[in-house]
Model the fold of this input.
Amino acid sequence: MSNDEIIVGIDLGTTFSLVAYVDAAGPHIIRDENGDGRVPSVIGVTPGANGAPPQVTIGWTARAHAIENARATVYSVKRLIGKGLEDIRRDLPYLSYAVSAGPRDTVQIEIDGRRYTPEEISALILRALKERAERHLGRPVEKAVITVPAYFDDAQRQATRDAGRAAGLEVVRIVNEPTAAALAYGIGLHRPPPRARAAASPPGHTPLPIPSCPTADAGGVAAHAGQTVAVYDLGGGTFDISILRLEDGVFQVLSTAGDTHLGGDDFDRAIINLVTEEVHAQYGVSITAPATKQALRTLAEAVKIRLSEQTQAEIELDLGRDRVYRRTITRAEFEHRIAPLVEQTLTLCGQVLRDAQLTPADLEQAILVGGSTRMPLVRQRIAEFFGRPPYTALNPDEVVALGAAIQASILSGKQADMLLLDVTPLSLGIETMGGAMGKLIVRNTTIPCRATEKFTTFVDGQTAIKINVLQGERELAADCRSLGEFVLDGLPPMAAGMPKVEVEFLLDANGILNVSAKELRSGQQAGIQIIPSHGLTRAEVDRIARESIQFAQRDIDAHRRIDLRNQVEFDTHKTEQMLARVGHLLAPEERARIEQDIAALRKLAQETSDLDELHRALTAFGHGTLHLAEIGIREALVKGDKEE
Done:
């Protein structure tokens, strides 16, 4: 790849998503005009007026209108991607939007009669990040490194790749989130102190914080080359724990474990369940209305955040019909409810240490990643488990995106002195006779990797073999996840046990699997890149990508329509305020004309489909109210002089 090529790093999160890049000054989060790098992973859909296509809002705007638009606001979609309906059954009571079963064991989100796949929703978020990067960099962005939880299985990784492709991005690498965080942490071991780089950082950018050397950092341990670290990543929807060795520019993952269904959403649900139980006890009603569900979810998240800073928080929920639920929840009460969830993460920490054949004393750092690590109970229990204060100098919301950008810079040739050695989180194998799981690649094997195994037939004259590719740790195929099947046929009929079938697994650096099989006596062979038995087909991904281009102008027009209507509402409202203040200073006929213009412009904004006409009318309205604006400014200045 060219050194001039732009490859961005993207953290596609459950709650927030971010995009970053690397330049000569280091890695940077790309921020909005308010300096916030986060884009809420929330999509809102509202029906178009008069047969127009639906309007889609992304990020903060969608989040702000989530309660009033509860049925058509999608959040936490990362928990649905690459999953079947049975996989997400326990999430359904907490969702305000409708989810149903789709083809090939997929889930689909239903909004106003249209069905969306989780990949489509994720693609909208990715496209928003792509556009943010393009605006900031002033050039097209076509390639990205996207992070996923380390414990994402093959289906979820493929689905994430599909979402990137549907967003118009070539996903050059899928990187595990804890590994990306370790890259961001470890880059400080190979760069000069911040003072030497401060002048090179462009305005509005936040370069990666560098751990101070040799004094102790926020975690209490001095950073130095040659470290074994634990990355504890507790995000909005998932948890990962990885052990890495960092030495001489090599980042080697020794072991990893996790739970793709444990995160901030579950801590919110502890509060949701408390409120739901008490509302039912006090009023005898269940919270089922989508708007109330959404309001309760928003309230629970806010209370959780407040309890990280305060020892108690007030809860108030309007249930309608003069029923208002109020109570005070203390931090101690909240921590009692979430303690089992935190203990689950520590059980996985113990597992990952055993897999790496290490103890907490063998580690230099326990690095915290993910917004949920801000909770005091999490920090307290991590300090107790690892025997030292956790490392908290890096922004837990941003560190994964920064690491993804660093990996992107390595792939683009900008940093050639670093090597990333990741592992596969789950074992891979095939179904053998009797429904057993025959493992070819065991979990925590360094990737990329290759494994082969020889099998034979159990039936005389067998001319075809069906190969069922599995992922999981159980010994029976029925207890593991089937990633896909293919058939090796055309075998010459032989006695049972005579054919020699060699199965080869190739696992690439993205954790994507290719499987092939060859009968050695006859030379017959077959193979596939594993495409999960559920999820989007290649044709569906291509369709989404084509539609993003095909409907680009329509989408631009829809966005422009929203902007113009918002501007009309703003300008006419401000003009009405000005008329109320200084309208008496106008000639009666001029005031009457402006009032008529206000009504006409608002009517045009609601009725016209000609955006150029609306733009011209808005411009003319601005010219027509100049005299009023001048009077308003003059009166404001006179009033200011008098007050002085």
Summary: The chain has a mean pLDDT of 84.
